[in-house]
Predict the structure.
Amino acid sequence: MAPRASLLLAAAVFALAAVAAWSASAPGAAATGVFQVRRKFPAGGGDAGGNISALRAHDGRRHGRLLAAADLSLGGLGLPTDTGLYFTEIKLGTPPKRYYVQVDTGSDILWVNCISCDRCPRKSGLGLDLTLYDPKASSSGSTVSCDQGFCAATYGGKLPRCTANVPCEYSVVYGDGSSTAGFFITDALQFDQVTENVQTQPGNSSVTFGCGAQQGGDLGSSNQALDGILGFGQANTSVLSQLAAAGKVKKIFAHCLDTVKGGGIFAIGNVVQPKVKTTPLVADMPHYNVNLKSIDVGGTTLQLPAHVFETGEKKGTIIDSGTTLTYLPELVFKEVMLAVFNKHQDVTFHNVQDFLCFQYSGSVDDGFPTITFHFEDDLALHVYPHEYFFPNGNDIYCVGFQNGALQSKDGKDIVLMGDLVLSNKLVVYDLENQVIGWTDYNCSSSIKVKDDKTGAIYTVIAHDISSGWRFQWHKSLILLSVTVVFSYLISLFV
């Protein structure tokens, strides 16, 4: 990243330091919020072969950006990315206008494409009508100037050569060449507040966000385009942090992504039912890092060297719903795969667009073992065969785990746990207490959240969003496969 990009991005991620300091004295948080979230990559229709490639390409770009964020000295804060698996509808401005934004737990700011944007897509391959934000069309919007407190707090003081009415800018350049640049705006955000059981009403809060004036690389493409990105990272610049600082919500959110019936829940607030066990978040890390202690396959603990579980620069375990698959260090990947296929050494493998696939006519849940990841404070993540395998045609299954060393040199020692293993689980991010937790759950049902200001407990039901939520693969995918015998698999894993 260029020095100027680093400086301006630092501005974005440190922007609300003063507001966060005030938040400790803010009144108790009010009702919870809820977003209707949809999957970006639809399950049915379209070019299924393209989808499987697109998901892997998405992870490749995102993986590199997560690492780029970790490598930068930005006070332990993350970066936005160009694609997210899930998107939601928000409303900005007065009168409010609708925007579709990618939901991303690895991002720290909200930004939308601006009316003055150069190379911003006007149409989306997702079939959505895109909207460019126009600051002049909103009676409640105002540009953040470089001599205002927001910008001064961002840069640690008034900027040199800053004069009145000059906008406070932001700029991000990513490792794959994508970029976004623009200026900060403060305007009204409208969101759904839970007020009674299964009922919401519009809530409003003033938030500061980026107005994207120029996009480059993938961000300028219309193929999977949306209006912007809604970050749910830990930084003070995130909408979650801003709403918490304003006393609107607790700094807690949860998601439950259903791959069975197509429903899902994404809620802000204190989840009281179901209860979840938690593990501490690693302090001073740019993402949702946790301490992985051991892995067992079918109840047998893998004998792995201690260094594979260490947290540090370019090491450790990240929970990230914005990544599709799960990436393991090469040594861990090989040991896991050997244990998974220990009783199936006669299986013939196919290489399908770099995924290991095989034919199996029975139930994978009956024929293969459960993989369990054990975390600090005795929190377990159970990954069942139907979650680490995905169907790909007539009795064809492919492995969803990936060898991280083949994706990124810098990421070869990182465990990156994505949507594949987080689906069908209620995942709670409790930033108030710096813990994260989960439990297996029917994500097409409901959860209960507590309004900490009134003490009331409300039911939040799953949104029957569409079959687009479902993590499936089109059955007509043409298998561009090369048959390999088991001895070749052994050569890969040993």
In short: Residues 184 and 211 are 6 Å apart (CA to CA).
